[in-house]
Amino acid sequence: MKLLTTLTTLITVAAAAPSSKKAPTSNVDVKLEAIGNSEVKAIISNHGKQDIRVFKPGTILDTSAVQKVKVVADGTASLRTSYFAVYLANIHHTGRHVPFLGIRKRISSKTIQDASLEKIPAGKSTEVIFNVAQTYDLSSGGKFNVNSIGSLSYAIGNGDNKLVGTVPYHSNTVSLDVNGAKAAHDRASFHTTMKRAKVQSDCTGERLSVTERALSNCAQLASAAEQAASSGSAEKMEEYFKASDEQTRQTVAGVFSRVVQECSSTNSGVANYYCTDVGNYCSGNVLAYTVPSESYMVYCDLYFNDLPDLTTQCHAQDQATTNIHEDTHLTQIQGTDDLGYGYEAIQGLSADQELNNADTYALFSNAIYANC
After folding, report:
1. What InterPro entries does its record include (predicted)?
2. For residue 31, which of 43, 225, 292, 350 is within the disulfide window of CB 3.0 to 4.6 Å?
């Protein structure tokens, strides 16, 4: 882990864990529509019998550059794309997932602000429009298939912002016929705006001391989690990763092994580490954010001021497990997504999804440390 004082572009952060309080069933679905060159409209519908307020940060309702969709290039030529560009697309991207180049979030579960919730009345819908080209490189042009898979946490009633439930969703797939030149322009313009963040001083004084302690705790928790994944309780592996076969154990242990390496130094490693909000994303309940495509992470005021260094409370957040969560997002560690935040949310994930979900690793390491 490299502690630096300068920066430029994009971001990552995780979202609030829902309460374990039992909630009424809520039927929510997401429908996508292609509009324009690379824009997509998402229609989020509440088919339940009561109003809900959906938690927005880190989800398809988030207005920042978080991952809202998956993009697969099918290699079909666009009439507006050059032969050479299509040739390159066919070589490098046909049938492949296009890498996500935006931000990921981790958010405090302590106090959910009103602005973080969007009300969807029973039988009604809400819409959001976003430009896929801003967070994916679609400059090769041609056909791209887009869908969204995730989960939405929600509160009910008015005044109480406690998250009481989580519903998974799997949208339809839409096809975009992309003009590569326009998509490249959209992405460049967006990233230029992102790079206007003011460069600030980095980890010094008390924040350096907190960071050094957090990294040490991160390495210790990840080491214990690595051992538990390699040869520990099969029941615990099943609880968090839905499997305990040798391949799953090796995968999980390998991730934690790489986290141990990343957290074991303040002057080496694969990522740059910041203690000030160089990207201006530390608002609301944001604890930390990471930009996997650029290998840097930022830890916010809330991380330093509100989180304990370690907790023995099961399924709770602390500085060490927040570091583990963020580390797994790094491409060199595992390149995880944010498919579910909190213990309740990960119960609805499949075994494959658990291996690709940042909070699952954080929660597993907490469970081993706290003997949950």
Report:
1. Fungal_M35_metalloproteases (IPR050414), Lys_MEP (IPR029463), MetalloPept_cat_dom_sf (IPR024079), Peptidase_M35 (IPR001384)
2. 43
